[in-house]
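User: Can you predict the 3D structure for this chain?
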Amino acid sequence: MKTEKQIQNSILRKYGTKAMMRLFRQNTGGAVQNGRFVQFGVKGQNDLGGLITVVDIDECGCCGNKQWHKPIGQHLGIEVKNKTGRPSQEQANYQRWMLDCYGINFIARSLKDVDDMLDPIIDKYESWSSGLAPKQDGLVEKHAEIDLTRHELSTLDAALSGCFASIKETLETDKNMDTIKFFIRRIKGISEAILKIS
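Assistant: Here is the predicted structure, written as structure tokens:
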């Protein structure tokens, strides 16, 4: 069984040098500097954190064309655990906070877990950056409002994915009903927000 450190290193080797994202180790703890104790990091924060560029595409409601939307930066957090590791209460609280802010946040027990979450996002970005996305000259103002709505839906969708992943993780580990109920309420709130936007 791979250790958490080995899993972290494999993730950083693959994703740490991607042009469309920044991923780095996030340390917590404290040290004595110049005779006084200095604490660094946030309790419960993810092992790996950074930013990822998200590009969305859909069929435009006003003209029927495939519409590629302006890339946005989204916060990314990955909590790394081995096959038997469980998140602490502080880590669970941090993940809830991140999902409430519509960040992309999940637990990874292997490199494949990260591949499954990030590869679809990276594929869209690489299509956009390689020029496969059609040019939309002259449509910027026309699509400005649609762009904003799509961005809102995209962030809500990412939050939903994080909630479902957290419920699955909880069911596979400690089966804490309070945690499951929290994410169910969160899913209900996100679903209501999606209905209002769409």
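The chain has five helices and eight strands. Residues 134-148 have pLDDT under 50 and may be disordered.
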